[in-house]
Each structure stands twice: as C-alpha cells, then as structure tokens.
Amino acid sequence: MEGKADGAREQARPPQFRRRLERADLGAVPETRKALRELLRHWGRPGRSEIAELLTSELVTNALVHTDHDAVVTATVGPRALRVEVRDFVARIPRVRVPDPELGTSGRGLALVQSLADAWGVRAHGVGKAVWFELDAGAA
Q1: pTM score, two decimals?
Q2: Are 109 and 97 in contact (CB under 8 A)?
Q3: Which residue has the higher pLDDT, 62 or 2?
C-alpha cells in the first residue's frame, strides 16, 4: 500500500522545475529558458509561455550579474497560474529603475516584470532574497 500512497502524492504535486545556477554562469540563462519552455509546452493561452520565458530570463540574469553568487530558480505550474521564483544569496533588495536610453538595454529587467507579470514581488529568504512573479494562464 505504501507504494500507492507515494504515487498519489507524486501525482498531486504541480509540475515544477528547480535548478541551481552557478555564479556568473550566463550560459544558464538560455538553458533555463529551454527548461521553462518544456515545462510550459501545453500551458496557458498563446503568448503566455513566451512572456514567462522573457521574465524568467530577466530575473535569472539580474541574480547572476548583480550578486556575484549562485542562484536558484524554481518554476511551478499551478491550476490557474505559473509562479517563478529566483532566489539569490544577497540581502540587497532590487528596485525598479527608469531605464536610461544611454545604457542600451541595461536596467529594464524589473520594469518588464512590473509591466508584464500579473503579480510580482521580493521577499527576504534566510540569507538573501527571492524575486518572484506570477502569470495567470488565461490572461490575454
């Protein structure tokens, strides 16, 4: 009977991926996008998974570029929404900046998250913080 109970618990868990990213490994950004794309292959309305990939890329890049530490990315597909969380090991809280046109594309990450996510935030997490966002599967 124990095997059946374990199987039921496995089935009850929402689809998820979790990956530890090595310090300054920007090659992890496209790898994370690919893993997320696979997780979201049959999720949400058209365009939602692409937005999720973009926002995840921004959070992962921020964590790797601005902290000089490892990071952990977790994506969980719930019944109505996707939640992506990127945890790093630096307590400094990020802030949304007004992008400077002189800096090209730098400084736009959190502004994109703020404008495209259905919800987002930052929470203290032991040593460091977690920056997260949620996307509703059905939103247009």
Answers
A1: 0.83
A2: no
A3: 62
